[in-house]
Amino acid sequence: MKLTENLNKKQKNLLLRVAVAAGMLVILFLLPLKEYPLLRFALFLVPYLTVGHDILKKSWKGIRNKQVFDECFLMAVATIGAMILGEYAEGVAVMLFYQIGELFQSIAVGKSRRSISDLMDIRPDYANLEQDGEVEKVDPDDVEVGSIIVVRPGEKVPIDGIVVEGTSSLNTSALTGESLPRDVKPGDEIISGSVNMSGLLRVETTKEFDESTASKILELVENAGERKARSEQFITKFARIYTPAVCYGALALAVLGPVISVLAFHKTSDWALWSDWIYRALTFLVISCPCAIVVSVPLSFFGGIGGAGSQGILIKGSNFMETLANVKYVVMDKTGTITKGNFEVTAVHDGKDEQMEAAGILELAAHAECHSTHPIASSIRRAYEAGDAAVDTGRVIDVQEISGKGVIARVDGVQAAAGNLKLMEQLDVSCDACGSVGTIVYVARAKKVTGADPVSGAKADEDKTAGTFEYLGHIVISDEIKPGAKEAIRSMKDAGVVKTVMLTGDIRSMAESVAKEVGIDEVHAELLPEDKVDLAEKLMKEKSAQAGPKASLAFVGDGINDAPVLAIADLGIAMGALGSDAAIEAADVVLMDDDPRKISKAVRIARKCIRIVYENIFFAIGVKLLCLILGALGIANMWLAIFADVGVMVLCVLNAVRALFVKNI
Amino acid sequence: MKKTYKIDVDCANCANKMEQAAKNTDGVKDAVVNFMALKMKVEFEDGADPAAVMQAVLANCKVVEDDCQIFL
After folding, report:
1. β-strand pairing of A439-446 with A469-481
2. Catalytic annotation on A570?
3. What's the ipTM?
4. Which of A33, A84, A412, A532 is the most buried (most CB within 10 A)?
5. Residues 13-72 of B with CB under 8 A from A
6. Boundaries of domain holding A414
7. pLDDT in tens, B1-15
8. Domains in chain B: how many in total?
9. What is the number of other CB atoms lying within 10 angstroms of the CB of residue A581?
C-alpha cells in the first residue's frame, strides 16, 4: 500500500491504534447502552486507552519531572475531565483527533524533509577510485587529494577536481538550476554534484570530500535552520507563554465562572452550573496546544530554503529570508553582476599622425603589460595572441607598474607606456579623444631611440624623463553586458525594489552607458575600493530614511574583493559563486550561477515564504483566540476546540509545504 | 568548541524545549536545535568535556521531553 509505505514503525503503530479506536467508537455510538451506565463507561474506556495510553503516561512523567504544561498534560486533563462529566464520546474523540493530528504532523514533516533532500539530490554515494590501473568503488570520504577517480556517464561527480582525460557534457542543474549542459575537456575544473552525461572522465581530485562543493552546499542548506528568523523567535516565545496562560485561564474559568454567575447573576449553585463551566474550561485546554503554530513556521522556512536551493539560490539562514523579502535597495557591482567581467579588445585606433599601425600598437601594449595580472592586461594579451603571435617576455625589461594608472616598461630596449588618461597626463602626452564606449588604454613610446643593444641595453639610455614620450594610439576594451541584465533590473522593480544602484571603478562615460542600457537608477563611477565602502554606508542611511527601518539593502557582487561591502549591507549576495569558497563564505545569499535574473527570483521566493509564515501565524493565533472566546462564552464545544487544534495544524502544515514550490515564481 | 549531534524528536515545540534544556546545562555555552534537519549544534564552554556534558544534556532533555533521543 502506497500510503503506509513511507511510514516508520512508530507512525504505523499509531495509525493502527487510531484506526482501531475509531472503529470501536463508531460501534459504541450505535449500541443501545443508555440503561447500563457502568458498562458504557467501561466499554468507552477501551478505545480511550487504546489510542491515548501513551499520552497519559507521558503526562504523568511530565508531572513527576515538574514539566506540567505540555500538550500531553493538557490532553490528559481535558479528556479525563470530559469522561468524568459523562461525555465519554467526546473524551475519546478528542484524544483520537489529537493523535490523528500528531500522526499527520509527523508524516508531513517527514515528507517535506524527504522532498528537500530530493530537491538537493547532489550528495554522491561513492567514488570510483583508480589505483594501480584498477578501479574500485569506495566511500568518497576515503579519497585523498590528488587521487585519480573515474566518472562514468550517468554518475555524479563525487569530488571537485580537474579533468585529466576524456571529454563530456555535465549537467549542473541540481547545483545551479541551469538546464544547459556544460562541456568539459582535459584541464577543466569540474565540480562535485554535477552529473556526467556523455563521456567517461578521469579526474584528478583537488579537494577532500568534506571540502568539495556538493558537501559544502548540503551543509549550508541543512544548517540554514540554525539562524532563526525573528518570526521564529517570536513564535518560540509565544508558545512558552501561551500554554501556561491558557491553562490558568481554564482554571479561572472553572472556578470564577460559576462564582460570578452565582454572585452577579443570582444563579443557583448546582452541579449543572459547575459542570457547564468545567466543560468550558476543558474546551480551553484542548485549544491551548501551541503545536500548529510552532511547527508551521520552521517548516515554511525549511521549505522556502530548500525550494530556493533547487533553483541554485542558497540562502544561509531563515533570518536572511526575512531580510531578503524586505529588499528595497539593490546595490550592484558592475563587473561580474551586470557585465560578464571578461574584457575584450573591441578596437585598436592608431593616432592621427600614424606613427604605428594598429597591429604594432597591440603588440607593444601586450608586451608592456606582459607581467600584469589585471583583467584588462590579460584581455590585451589575449587579443594579441589570438593571431599567430605569442608574447615574448624576453623582449621586456624594467617593468614599472603605476597603480591605478598603467604600466611603463622597456620593450626591445625602447620605453613604452600603456595606461589610462592619468598616465598620459603624468607623462605629458597629448592624445586623441575616442568616441567609443569602453575602457581606453593609451599607448605611447619614447621618442628617442638610443643606440643601445635591443635586449639588454637598459643601462645606456637617458630617455626616462617626462615629455619625451610620443602618442601612438589607443586600444578600446569593452565588457559585455550579460544577456539577462535588462530583464533582471525590470523584474527587480516588479518585485518591489525601489532603487537600483550601480558601483564601479570604471570611467563615468562607460558606466553611464551601461546603466542606461539596462535601466539602472543611480550610477557611481570611478570608485576606489574604499569609496565603495563609504558609498555603501551612505546608501544604507538613505535607505533607512527613504524606505523605513524595516526595508533592507542588498549588495550584489561577484564575491571577490567585495567582503567589506558585503558586510556593511543588510544582505550580501554573491553571484556566480559556483566553485568559489571565498564567495560562499562571505555572502548571506549565494547565487550559484551568474544569471542576474536570479536576484529578483530570490526576492520573490523569500516574499512567498514570508507570506506563508505570516499567514500561518495570523491564521493559527486568530482561530485559536476566536475559539477561546467562543469557548469561554459556552458557544464552542469540544468538537470545535479539536478543530481549532488539529484542523488548524493540518491547514498550517499544508500551507507551509507550499513554500517548497518555487519553480515558476 | 562546537559539535553537531543527530537527534530524534517528534514535535517542533518539543525541539524548542530541548534547545532550552541544553542551553541551561552546565558546560554548554550555546545550543541550537534544528528541528527540520533533526540536528543539535552545541557550543561547549572552554575546558568542558563534551562527552560528560552531553550526558547531562541528554538527561536534561529527557526531563523536558521523555520521547527524545540524542545520538552521541
Report:
1. antiparallel
2. no
3. 0.82
4. A532
5. 13, 16-17, 32, 34-39, 41, 63-67
6. 340-481
7. 888 888 988 777 788
8. 1
9. 14
